[in-house]
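Appendix C: a fully annotated inverse folding record. The material below is reproduced so that readers can follow the format used throughout the book. The structure is listed first as tokens, followed by the designed sequence.
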């Protein structure tokens, strides 16, 4: 079975010059977007819109279709991702104002220590990402990442990249994520075996792309977190007497030239986080940790257990839904209820409603203060929303132009082992469409008919190869690319060097691990 190759697949159509042009058009459109943003200094929304119209018109779709593709893609991504960003921002604002994020940050800092924070964040992101769509996990982890960076005076990319790496790894390789499930069904793989193999492959990938890659890249890429992101997800409180005394004590014991982390509570409202700082040197440091329930500006802080329970609520609900979908253990009214509550939008809404109590009224906030916190949640994310929407429009323009069909047809002419072909088709689809899930679904439709007769282990590895390829080269047509750029204050070039390189490294590392398993099973 391992030697089965793509040459067994029939070629449905002959290649034409138009197909060649469509493949070239992918590169042209990407170059247009990058040049408009980096050289012409055009806003990303307008650059992506121009790029989308360029694709549609030059592919022969027509002016009318060009506008329809962009608006349809924008509407689709805003309906699926935009509402998650809004709910995640509300949850993050409530956590920040109540001090709930402070509890997580202080506990994480105390347990892991500064040098091991990237490892701890990678592990947390993998756990959080198991039952969740990538975008849901992203908007839930952004407040944690920004709060660590601000309160601990820690480079934001040293925690931001591991968080995104952990999420991306499990999203690409571990069921019950939708792309992997589609691949499992398409190649008739056993989902339990695919889950086992996926976890085996995911562990080294998360380590390589998370803490190891982060240690190399963060000093080389400047990042300046926007004030809007800090305002949305972090708190700035006047320094208490205890905090001021602790800082003074730390500074009095610091060698000349050493820098002591200063908590955000001792900073002004204009604090920003800038990367890269000078490489750390040996120096004394102080970890200022409030106790559970200690007052903050005259109010109680939520207990650590309450904070974790509120954050885990949507994860538990989505995990229950994934379990029902995978193992069919619920029926009737129970199944309907779990399916409803486990929908990402509903589960996040439920968490927000619970947070109104646990992070609001229960810690001493009045109804007016809670209402004001909700109002402050929306303005900072306006810029992120329009860019993410434009990314969805650009992706839809690429799909409607017929590029998917051209890639599938080109792949069938290649005479390479099936597992490599699956990875290559998914990688090309990801490069063209920007969506890992769309790439897996499209590639599975092409590879599925070629997978007849594979035994269970090789079918499972073939499904993982599709997920691995779909993680390849996330770039400007990926809506999450722009989320990462805007939240962490990167340039387009900096995002390409971090986001794009990390996804490419994830794809290649997972492919190597899959091929190694393929050789021994």
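Designed amino acids, in order:
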């Amino acid at each position: 079975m391992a030697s089965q190759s793509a040459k067994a697949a029939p070629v449905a159509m002959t290649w034409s010059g138009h197909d060649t042009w469509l493949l070239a058009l992918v590169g042209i459109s990407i170059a247009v977007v990058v040049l408009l943003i980096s050289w012409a200094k055009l806003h990303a929304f307008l650059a992506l819109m121009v790029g989308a119209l360029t694709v549609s018109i030059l592919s022969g779709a027509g002016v009318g279709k060009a506008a329809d593709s962009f608006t349809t893609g924008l509407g689709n991504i805003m309906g699926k991702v935009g509402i998650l960003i809004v709910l995640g921002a509300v949850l993050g604002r409530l956590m920040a104002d109540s001090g709930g994020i402070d509890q997580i940050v202080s506990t994480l800092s105390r347990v892991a220590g500064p040098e091991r924070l990237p490892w701890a964040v990678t592990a947390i992101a993998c756990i959080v990402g198991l039952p969740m769509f990538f975008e849901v996990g992203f908007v839930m982890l952004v407040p944690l990442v920004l709060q660590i960076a601000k309160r601990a005076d820690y480079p934001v990319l040293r925690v931001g990249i591991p968080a995104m790496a952990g999420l991306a790894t499990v999203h690409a390789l571990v069921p019950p994520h939708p792309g992997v499930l589609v691949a499992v069904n398409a190649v008739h793989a056993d989902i339990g075996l695919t889950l086992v193999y996926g976890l085996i492959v995911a562990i080294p990938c998360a380590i390589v792309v998370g803490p190891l890659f982060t240690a190399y890249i963060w000093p080389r890429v400047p990042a300046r977190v926007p004030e809007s992101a800090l305002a949305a997800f972090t708190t700035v409180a006047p320094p208490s007497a205890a905090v001021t005394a602790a800082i003074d004590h730390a500074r009095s014991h610091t060698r000349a030239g050493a820098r002591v982390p200063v908590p955000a509570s001792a900073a002004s409202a204009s604090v920003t986080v800038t990367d890269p700082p000078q490489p750390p040197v040996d120096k004394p440091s102080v970890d200022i940790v409030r106790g559970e329930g200690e007052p903050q500006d005259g109010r109680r802080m939520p207990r650590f257990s309450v904070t974790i329970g509120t954050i885990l609520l949507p994860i538990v609900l989505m995990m229950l839904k994934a379990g029902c979908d995978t193992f069919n253990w619920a029926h009737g009214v129970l199944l309907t209820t779990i399916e409803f509550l486990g929908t990402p939008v509903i589960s996040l809404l439920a968490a927000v409603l619970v947070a109104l109590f646990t992070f609001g009224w229960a810690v001493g906030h009045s109804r007016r203060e809670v209402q004001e916190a909700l109002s402050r949640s929306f303005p900072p994310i306006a810029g992120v929303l329009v860019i993410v929407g434009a990314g969805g429009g650009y992706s839809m323009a690429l799909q409607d132009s017929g590029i998917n069909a051209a890639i599938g047809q080109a792949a069938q002419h290649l005479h390479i082992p099936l597992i490599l072909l699956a990875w290559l088709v998914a990688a090309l689809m990801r490069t063209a469409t920007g969506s890992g899930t769309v790439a897996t679904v499209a590639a599975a439709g092409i590879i599925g008919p070629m997978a007849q007769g594979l035994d269970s282990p090789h079918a499972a590895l073939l499904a993982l190869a599709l997920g691995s390829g779909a993680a390849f080269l996330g770039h400007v047509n990926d809506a999450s690319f722009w989320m990462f750029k805007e939240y962490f204050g990167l340039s387009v070039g900096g995002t390409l060097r971090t986001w794009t390189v990390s996804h490419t490294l994830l794809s290649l590392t997972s492919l190597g691990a899959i091929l190694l398993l393929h050789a021994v099973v």
